[in-house]
Amino acid sequence: MSRAALLVLADGRFPAGGHAHSGGAEAAVKAGRITGAKSLEEFCRGRLHTTGLVSASLAAAAALGLDPVALDEAADARTPSVALRVAARKLGRQLMRAARATWPSAELDALAREFPKGAHQPVVLGVAARAAGLGAVDAAYCSAYESVGGPATATVRLLSLDPFEATGVLARLAPDLDRVADRAGEVARCAVEEGVDVLPAVSAPLLEISAEAHAAWPVRLFAS
Amino acid sequence: MHLDHTHDGPSAISADAHRPDGTRRALRIGLGGPVGSGKTATVAALCRALRDEISLAVVTNDIYTREDADFLLREAVLPPERITAVETGACPHTAIRDDISANLEAVEDLEDEVGPLDLILVESGGDNLTATFSKGLVDAQIFVIDVAGGDDIPRKGGPGVTTADLLVVNKTDLAPFVGSDLGRMATDAKAQRAELPVVFQSLRAEGGVTDVAAWVRGQLAAWTA
């Protein structure tokens, strides 16, 4: 495995469309649930241990070579909100384009053929990590970090939050990120033997509900 | 750009000149420039001027609304299925330059769904003087400024004014009212752009978008040659 490849894939500037999404932060800011660094940290910690863990586990499992079609179904089953499923597939398709251009791979080509309009983003992320020569825990780290990095960056734009404070939030979440990535790696290894049903299915109902409302706003800064 | 090479697989990756089925894709022209300079009005006028000659579609990149897409729909310059809005997360320059994935999807989906197309106009949300389109997204770009935004903009330069394939100085009819010196703008633009073309236009005057439409026809002829 190449540590440098992990940096390339995890870089927020990797051109895979994430900049247009807030990970639920825009809806939470509007509802008054994120008002500053402290509430941003609470929001991110909640997201990390729910959808963050689910995504990281899916990514780790895909990186281990589990059937991406089964993983995509598992992702659907774990994403009640239609708006979030649409966003996840959209981001999956954008990541697919960037990954195929960056790390050409027969597995990525096959997945793109199977899902011309996009598979769930964490599944694509896992297959992309494989193509980059990365392991399951690396894929989990990328996914877990994205689950908090997106909302933090978006909140800087939404609230004009001090960017140093937002970065401090991410740094304070590092121990949680380590735990989530390790856990995701473990359950992904279990899934190799026992199937995708053993992957975590924790959810954050408020994220799902507010994503549905957000998708219907006539004026918004972020796509999700 | 890899103009004469295609990738295997279900969708083109970036700037390839051919679609997955081997046919030549549509020419893609970007329109950028500051807020309120008349990008959407120019797009609308181009659609009216060209829609009976060629098959075309539009992608808009609004900052936080669907305002531009809705304007084009309301004006009925094209059927609704030929207009797509891309959401940019408050950063149009990111969506047209640094991370073009959403825009590439939009142009490819348009070709899949309403194609074959000859031309796709990709309009950026209003941005600053440094906003330019990636060569992975468009084949040529138009930068639109207006006389009311200050007649010193051509002198200030910046990547849009300096490098765009066509510079449009819009709203020339307003020049006497805002004290803008068109001659000075033309001299400054020439100094910044050397041989690259500049069009002065007023969409409210006779002629309107004629010069820009002629330039687009020239680009199309070169693309299909």
Automatic annotation (TrEMBL), chain A:
A Pfam family it matches: UreF
GO molecular-function terms, A-Z: nickel cation binding
Gene Ontology CC annotation, any one: cytoplasm
Location of the protein in the cell: Cytoplasm
Gene3D superfamilies: Urease accessory protein UreF
InterPro entries from the UniProt entry: UreF, UreF_sf
Keywords, comma-separated and alphabetical: Chaperone, Cytoplasm, Nickel insertion
Record note on quaternary structure: UreD, UreF and UreG form a complex that acts as a GTP-hydrolysis-dependent molecular chaperone, activating the urease apoprotein by helping to assemble the nickel containing metallocenter of UreC. The UreE protein probably delivers the nickel.
Function: Required for maturation of urease via the functional incorporation of the urease nickel metallocenter.
Similarity annotation: Belongs to the UreF family.
Name of protein: Urease accessory protein UreF
Organism: Streptomyces sporangiiformans
Automatic annotation (TrEMBL), chain B:
SUPFAM superfamilies: P-loop containing nucleoside triphosphate hydrolases
Primary localisation category: cytoplasm
Biological processes per GO annotation: urea catabolic process
GO MF terms, alphabetically ordered: GTP binding; GTPase activity; nickel cation binding
Source superkingdom: Bacteria
UniProt domain CobW/HypB/UreG nucleotide-binding: residue ranges: 29-199
Keyword annotations: Chaperone, Cytoplasm, GTP-binding, Nickel insertion, Nucleotide-binding
Listed HAMAP family: UreG
Function text: Facilitates the functional incorporation of the urease nickel metallocenter. This process requires GTP hydrolysis, probably effectuated by UreG.
Quaternary assembly: Homodimer. UreD, UreF and UreG form a complex that acts as a GTP-hydrolysis-dependent molecular chaperone, activating the urease apoprotein by helping to assemble the nickel containing metallocenter of UreC. The UreE protein probably delivers the nickel.
Protein name per Swiss-Prot or TrEMBL: Urease accessory protein UreG
Gene that specifies this protein: ureG
